[in-house]
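Reopening this one. Same input as before:
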Amino acid sequence: MLADRHRIARLIPHSGAMCLLDGVVEYDAQHIRCVSSTHLDADNPLRAANGLPALCGIEYAAQAMAVHGGMQGAAAGDGGERPRAGYLAGVRDVTCTVSRLDTLGAPLTIDAERLMGDGTNVMYTFRVSADGATILQGRATVVLDAEKART
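Same output, byte for byte:
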């Protein structure tokens, strides 16, 4: 494993149970593959009374994108692993094949591929799968340095 849960927690702004990823199994400049079984946890912070909606997979993908940015920053020697501040500005072309994540018995595989980006925006495609079957996929735009963009 290239990064465990402990390192992931240093790369994203989420901690404790809200850190949804268990590990990074593949990484390069354009792509990251993460794994997670937190969708099966009864105390998952995204779980509602009737279970964990499949659209919560978007948060899993967003965390994978943040980890990718953090690992890129660390590889570039930018002085730290924490990715630049940013926020998910939009998702497009999202398709979902199940209604809930907590009913899946297998670990999730989360893939994110960087399509393009500059100093202020990054676009990714993402795919969440279990047992090789696609559960959720789409495209996301992330705005970086959100605080600086407002000034």
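So the earlier flakiness isn't reproducible anymore. For the record, The chain has three helices and seven strands.
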